Structure formats: structure tokens, C-alpha cells
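Quick one before lunch.
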Amino acid sequence: MNIKVYEEMRVLCGYTSADAELLAKYAETTKPWIQEFVTTFYNTIFDYEPTRKVFKDGERPDREATTMQWFDQMLSGQHDEAFWQRQWVVGILHILRAVPNAFMLGMMSRVQQLFLEKVQAALPPDEALALYLAFKRATDVVAALIAESYFYTYVESMESVVGMNPTLVQRILHAEVGKRLQKERGG
Ligand code: HEM
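Model of the protoporphyrin IX containing FE complex:
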């Protein structure tokens, strides 16, 4: 894992161990919702052709099982180093399975919205808000780790494949990006 990315995102989101502790405190309330979260998650991505296409025939039960585990750890507040490391690995798996970050971020937004609906229905407003914000910060750090892992791994693998010096790649890339910027601005 890239500790720098984790640390930067943690600080910028305002995520602390108090968030993990709050999630753990409410785990008895929230963990019974996991099955519903997972079913809605997969119904959403299987009902939409671009996301459905990612999956192989018969793969859904395996994916549901690992998503259940993911929710279990997230909602138990088991946010140790191994947990964050696994999120970094997800970015790499997503490259191999051609899952763009737009899919992941879209679904993370859905997950956060679902969680908000559930906590609002189950808890007094101030407790619901506090718990939602803890979940939001933790899941935003996860999304950033997956996205950055995808980006870093993609670029670094590309550099290795073409066998170019990273500084040279940076310079050539910078010039190319400058051209694209002009084009996107209609220049
Ligand atoms: C909230 C957003 C998401 C999170 C947190 C997430 C998390 C994960 C995790 C934890 C794994 C690893 C499972 C394991 O250890 O075996 C994984 C793998 C995978 N994810 Fe995601 N994912 C997200 C969104 C998506 C979306 C939107 C798709 C497809 C449209 C997707 C497709 C896959 C696939 C196909 C794998 C299997 C990789 C493999 O083992 O071959 N994910 N994801």
C-alpha cells in the first residue's frame, strides 16, 4: 500500500480512529443490514448493461460473499493496517477485471446513500448524522485508496512495460497532457 496516499486522504477527510470506534459501537444495529446492502448493490450493477458486462457467468455468489465480508469489516470498525492494505489490492484487481473508477465511485456513492437512509430510519437525528459521517469518511478513504491504487499501478506497470525511465515518462506525459488540455478547451 502507498502509506502516503492513505495518510493524505485520512487527514483531508478528517477520518480518525474515533470513526472506527463509533462504527464498532453501532455494529449490532448496522450489521443486520448487510444482506440488504449487498443485494441492492448487485441488483444495481446487474440491472445496468455496462456494469453487468464486467462479470462472468455464475460469478455473482462469489462476489456477493466477498462484498459481505467487506461490509462486515467496515461496519465492525475493524480498520487495521491489513484492512487498508486490502483496499489497495482492490484497485489492482479492478484493473485486471476492467472495472473503471467511475463504476467504483458510482457504487460507493450508492452505498453511502443507502447507509444514510437506514441510519435515518433507525436512529435519532443527531446519532444518525454522527454515524453516517463516520461511515462516509471511512468509505471515502476506501474509495480514494482503490482509485489511487488503480492509477499508480496502471502508470507504473505501463512504465515497466515500455521500459522507460520514470522521469522521462513524466516529461513526455506532461507535454502530451498539455496538448490534450488545449484540445479539450477547444483550442
Ligand atoms: C463500492 C465500490 C466497490 C468496492 C468497495 C469494491 C470492493 C471490492 C473488493 C473488496 C474486492 C476483492 C474481493 C476479493 O478479495 O476477492 C473486489 C473485487 C472485484 N470487484 Fe469490486 N468493489 C467496488 C465496486 C465494484 C464495481 C462497481 C464492480 C463492477 C461493475 C466491481 C467488480 C469487481 C470484480 C469483478 C472483482 C473481482 C476481482 C477478482 O478477484 O477477479 N467492483 N471489489
